[in-house]
Amino acid sequence: MIKSILVVDDSKMSRKLVIRALPEEWDSPVHQASNGLEALDIVHDKSPDVIFLDLTMPELDGFGVLAALQKEENKVPVIVISADVQTEAYERAIGLGARAFIQKPMGPGDIRKVVQELGLL
């Protein structure tokens, strides 16, 4: 059961779009961060059950967040949502522990499909 969610993106509009697309069944608190440093603080303070993570952000990018989580052996499922669809970005994110990768702009059912595939719904 998902008790807490973290959405990380430097764009407030993108965070709102992700939050609106979350499964209705997840009646859980949603925490937001606008950069990777804020995200790690929330991870340590709130222990979210799932993270939706952009890759391109100021201060600490999504790759830095993934690397920090990997170093800490934190197993929280991370779903990357990014406009960077280069093969290298995808492979690097998956190599750093991301469980899935959704391309921006995302469609209305993309999050539901991915969380179902991951067994989070």
Structure notes:
This protein is 40% helix and 17% strand. The protein has 121 residues and is α/β, with parallel strands linked by helices. Strands 2-1-3-4-5 form a 5-stranded parallel β-sheet, sandwiched between helices. Helix 3 links the parallel strand 3 and strand 4 (78-82). Helix 2 packs parallel to helix 3. The longest helix is centred in the middle third of the chain and has 11 residues, at 36-46.
List keywords for this structure.
alpha/beta; 121 residues
Rounded to the nearest angstrom, the distance between the terminal CA atoms is 8 Å
Count of beta strands? 5
Q: Strand share of the residues?
A: 15-25%
And the CATH topology? Answer: Rossmann fold
Roughly how many Å is the radius of gyration?
A: 13 Å
Number of domains: 1
* CATH class value: Alpha Beta
Number of helices: 5
Write a concise synopsis of the structure shown:
With 121 residues, the chain is α/β, with parallel strands linked by helices. It is 40% helix and 17% strand.
Topology readout:
Layout: E1 5-8, H1 12-21, E2 30-33, H2 36-46, E3 50-53, H3 62-71, E4 78-82, H4 87-95, E5 100-103, H5 110-117
Parallel strand pairs: 1-2, 1-3, 3-4, 4-5
Helix pairs in contact: 2-3
